[in-house]
TrEMBL record:
One GO MF term attached to the UniProt entry: hydrolase activity
Entry-linked Gene3D superfamilies: 3.30.300.20, P-loop containing nucleotide triphosphate hydrolases (3.40.50.300)
Positions that bind GTP 2: 197-204, 249-253, 314-317
Family: Belongs to the TRAFAC class TrmE-Era-EngA-EngB-Septin-like GTPase superfamily. EngA (Der) GTPase family.
Protein name: GTPase Der
UniProt-listed SUPFAM superfamilies: P-loop containing nucleoside triphosphate hydrolases
Domain EngA-type G, residue spans: 3-167, 191-371
């Protein structure tokens, strides 16, 4: 089943125009007059290969603005039930209205992920509307012009994290063995990097150090979420090569909070927000404190969200018993995080700058494997060997048949194994396969997802 995305918004913001744009046909009339009654429309949408079912709620609106919120809510609630995500559309030109705010508040209370879309953002007239929309507290708005087709591709960035997995699963199931065809993932853009960790680990010091030594491409950009900033800069690697990095900083914003206990909890919340935007997350530890439970909790969350994780031990300049500290943390990570083996672990000093180039180099490298696609032929060669070396068990005398494997996606790498009688496959065998994918196919330290499927 393809994922379903519902378009929500008050009348006249351009929902129908967006729907038509996504479906690629002039299906319905678009009218200047708010509230023109239309039928509920459902269509097949595709953005950069991401396929989903899109539902337009335009036309569920009442003419009478007084009764509008309630009625719209009732109608929207029904369709929200089956939806995997909602695109909440606001109008950059008119600015936010009380009704937008009400819908936004209501959506914040729903469990469905919301992608905030600011339509009519073409030209300078839309700029302030885009900035204003941050105040809805629904994350980073995606400016588009449905009418002119601008920015629609950027919706991919917003939708992929929430429906990508389901879409790719549907795709893999439907098309079976054709993974070779979409080997081209496109070039990787600036490295999206977040630095997380407990208070006083040295996050701010690290960020200042990195930025101080390198060229800022733009000034910090406020409000990727309400509590973070994004900074685009250029890292000059030791060889002289330059690489672009977009740093997500949730740390600096926390300086004002006083109570340590509150800070501890906030650091988890910060990390959670940061992973939404980051490809690679650096968990910063304090060498004078070692690895604590809270750190493992953050690490585990990052991996569960499917992000590439690295761990850096900061304040190495004042570390005592350095090698036993390092080995102790290594062991605790391997033991505490069963999803990955051999996470990159580095010693750094934000104060002296030691280890920072190595850290960034490793961050680019881990993004490579996080983004890598293994050709289907090579994948199945490995798969056949793995089955030969250790055939699946035969509970009750009937062998479980594993037929082939395909890589359904990247970032993080996702695989689908097709076979029969999969319900009987022991967890230990599944782990055997996952470990093989990691060790033999070059996904050592990144979270890998494997799904088992029986063809219909
Ligand atoms: P709905 O009621 O939310 O479905 O809105 P419609 O799709 O009917 O659009 C309402 C009005 O906004 C129409 O006049 C559209 O032509 C106009 N509109 C839609 N998208 C854009 C856009 O990107 N830029 C501008 N300037 N106008 C738009
Ligand atoms: P944050 O709360 O994670 O942003 O931590 P800060 O960047 O504010 O740093 C907390 C304290 O650790 C400050 O007093 C820093 O000067 C100190 N600090 C940060 N990095 C280092 C380091 O590499 N070595 C040493 N010795 N101190 C550091």
């Amino acid at each position: 089943m393809k994922p379903t995305v519902i378009i929500i918004g008050r009348p006249n913001v351009g929902k129908s125009t967006l729907f038509n744009r996504l479906v690629g046909k002039k299906l319905a009339l678009v009218d200047d007059q708010p509230g023109v009654t239309r039928d509920r429309r459902i269509g097949d949408a595709s953005i950069a290969g991401l396929e989903f079912t899109v539902v337009d709620t335009a036309g569920w609106e009442d003419e009478d603005p007084d009764t509008l919120p309630g009625r719209m809510r009732a109608q929207t609630e029904v369709s929200l039930e089956g939806a995997d995500a909602a695109m909440f559309v606001v109008d950059a030109r008119s600015g936010l209205t009380p009704l937008d705010e009400e819908i936004g508040r209501w959506l914040r209370g729903q469990s469905v992920p919301v992608v905030l879309v600011v339509n009519k953002a073409e030209g300078a007239a839309g700029e302030s509307g885009v900035l204003e929309s941050y105040s809805l507290g629904l994350g980073e708005p995606i400016p588009i012009s449905a009418e002119h087709g601008e920015g629609v591709a950027d919706l991919f960035q917003g939708l992929w994290p929430v429906i990508g997995e389901k879409a790719e699963g549907a795709d893999a199931a439907a098309t079976e063995q054709d993974a070779d065809e979409d080997d081209e993932e496109g070039p990787l853009g600036p490295l999206k990097l977040a630095i997380v960790g407990r208070p006083n680990a040295g996050k701010s010091t690290l960020i200042n150090r990195l930025l101080g030594e390198n060229r800022l491409l733009t000034g910090p950009e406020a409000g990727i979420t309400r509590d973070s900033i994004a900074i685009d800069w250029q890292w000059t690697a030791p060889g002289g090569e330059t690489r672009e990095i977009r740093l997500i900083d949730t740390a600096g914003m926390r300086k004002k909070a006083k109570v340590q206990d509150k800070l501890e909890r906030l650091s988890v919340a910060d990390a959670r927000r940061a992973v939404d935007f980051a490809e690679v997350v650096v968990l910063l530890l304090d060498a004078t404190k070692g690895l604590e439970h809270q750190d493992l909790k953050i690490a585990d969350m990052v991996l569960q969200e499917g992000r590439a994780l690295m761990v850096a031990i900061n304040k190495w300049d004042v570390a005592e018993n350095a090698s036993s500290l390092f080995n102790g943390i290594r062991g605790a990570l391997d033991e505490g995080l069963s999803q990955v083996r051999g996470l990159p672990l580095l010693a750094v000093s934000a104060k002296t700058g030691k280890g920072l180039d190595t850290l960034l180099k490793a961050a680019f490298e881990i993004r490579e494997s996080w983004s890598k696609r293994v050709p289907t032929a090579a994948l199945n060669r490995w798969f056949d060997d793995a089955l030969d070396a250790n055939p699946p068990p035969a509970p009750g005398g009937r062998r479980i048949k594993l037929r082939y494997i395909t890589q359904a996606g990247t970032r993080p790498p996702r695989f689908v194994v097709f076979g029969t009688r999969l319900d009987d496959l022991p967890k230990s065998y599944e782990r055997y396969l996952v470990n093989g994918i990691r060790a033999k196919l070059g996904f050592d330290a990144v979270p890998v997802r494997v799904v088992l499927k029986s063809p219909k």
